[in-house]
Amino acid sequence: MKAYILALCWALPMLGLAVLNVFGIVSDASMQVMLAIMPALAVISINRNRRCLKARTSN
After folding, report:
1. Which of 12, 31, 32, 53 is deepest in the core (most CB within 10 A)?
2. What are the transmembrane regions (predicted)?
3. Alpha-carbon distance 14 to 8, whole Å?
């Protein structure tokens, strides 16, 4: 999967949670936790396939 598609898969739920928080469906405390954890998980999942090429080709 391309990195930008995976980034969109993470961005849309974060925006959805923000909208739900504006309307009072999601509490502020839950929102603080989610917006602290979700970007970190997104960075890890998006960059998981990128590794140093030298490490793969060295014998």
Report:
1. 31
2. 5-23, 29-46
3. 10
Q: How many domains does the chain have?
A: 1
| CB crowding 1-31: b at 16 or more within 10 Å, else e | eeeeebeeebeeeeeebeeebeeeebeeeee
14: domain range?
1-57
Alpha helices in 3-59 (DSSP H): 3-22, 28-46, 53-57
The model's pLDDT over 1-59, given as tens digits with 9 standing for 90+, comes to: 677 888 899 999 999 999 999 999 999 999 999 989 999 998 888 887 666 555 555 55
pLDDT at 52: 59
Dihedral, CA atoms, 13, 3, 49, 1, nearest 10 degrees?
Answer: 90
